[in-house]
Amino acid sequence: MREAKGFSTYYVGIKDESGKIIAGSMLSVLPIFMNGTLVQALRGPLLDYKDEEQVTFFHEHLIAFLKKKNCIYLHIDPYVPYVPHDLDGNVVEGDFDNRDVVSLLKKLGYRHEGFTRGIDLSREPR
């Protein structure tokens, strides 16, 4: 479906010593300007975001791969819940907390685009 819209599709990942896939992502690459491309990792990459070494390794190798594809913009939207909130918008204490994941991604150079409400048709639905 994405290829019909002009995207090229690539699959990248990490295998452990036994050959088992432990991280991966489907990348949709779209030519957008001159020789540059827009790359989307919809609902990904899929990896253990609590493992800083794995995230950093994947990121560094992903960037090297994307440089070869003339990537000028990479959009990721990992399927990682941030922190739980109650109906009034207050953080529910004592439950999961993935603020450190956002901090790690920012440290690697990603920019958080903020939280949204409703449906943004230009993005992958949540």
From TrEMBL:
**Alphabetized Pfam families for the sequence:** FemAB (PF02388)
Q: Which SUPFAM superfamilies match?
A: Acyl-CoA N-acyltransferases (Nat)
Instruction: Tell me the Gene Ontology biological-process terms attached to this UniProt entry.
Output: cell wall organization; peptidoglycan biosynthetic process; regulation of cell shape
Q: Output the Gene Ontology terms for molecular function.
A: aminoacyltransferase activity
List keywords of the entry alphabetically.
Acyltransferase, Cell shape, Cell wall biogenesis/degradation, Cytoplasm, Peptidoglycan synthesis, Transferase
> So what family is this one in?
Belongs to the FemABX family.
Name assigned to this protein: Peptidoglycan bridge formation glycyltransferase FemA/FemB family protein
User: What is the source species?
Assistant: Faecalicoccus pleomorphus
